[in-house]
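We close this part of the discussion by returning to an individual protein. The sequence in question and its structure tokens are set out directly beneath this paragraph:
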Amino acid sequence: MKLNKDAQELLERYLFAVKKELNDKRREDIVAEIESYIYDLLEEHYSGMAEVDEQELEVILKEMGAPRKVAAQYSPHRYLIGPRLFPLYKIVLRIMLLVVLGALTLSMVISNIVEFSGNVWKLLLEYLGTLWSGGLSVVGVITLIFAIIERTTEGKNIEEIEELQELHIDDLPELPQQEKEISRLGVSVEIILDIIGLVFFTYIQKTGGQLPYWMAPSSDMQLIPVFTPGFMQFVPFILALTGLEISRNLTLLVQVHPTSLTNWWRIAVKIADLVLLVFLMSSLPLVSLDYFQHILGSDTLVKLEPLVNTGLVIAMGLGILGSFVDILKQVVREVRNPILLT
């Protein structure tokens, strides 16, 4: 039996939605089995028809129910939370984790903008510990609540749960677009720039934030302190993030096409960059021009130091805003239309 173009697209969207709900390694085989079952149902309902249209296929799909309901039938047995509640449990858990972890992160950012303790490593460990305990608490509380609901409503129909089992065609995800091949030249240029940055920050880490200076072409080189200790404490983090970005771009060169791994990798690095910018803003001043007064015999440049640091704050503030919007767009794209690894 043949499906027309619209019906074929609807079937592919439905199967794609089922596939997103499956975590089993055999999900390709499971989806193929479900597709075969749908064709069997079509043969039973429309045996005399040469072609099935979208409306006729929709009848069959609504009989089967929402993709999460179909996927739940192939999921491993849940001893604590059964397949009836498990799709709703996953939705609530994801929302609560995003809300709680986002709130903890926002609280950390605001508190460190207002008052930064100066001990980066201690602050980082406290932040990771807070995220871990917060996330663990959310998982424990939500799991306990759903376990109680599972036991107290066994054999009963819950209207909200029944609605989740129903198929709503408009809720089916769009099929993922074919990822465009990367620009090898563009990625190569990014790698070169990152390597230059890696060399620069490695150099100032070794010199303690000092840069070379020559009074005259024939004079000896002097090292001038430019970067403050407030900035230098973050150099190891800058080096680590630059290394991660180089690794991601090298992976892209090998794979040619972006994957879910490289996309989420980029999101994670951008989030880390955003947090780093917040810490840098709370560690002013980042550069010092005091030594130039001794060299030039004038305090002109020293007077410009507050303006330079203010300019850095404005630039970092714009960077934080841009990064936040970019991260939000990429996360929404990956959640709505992920690249599934087979």
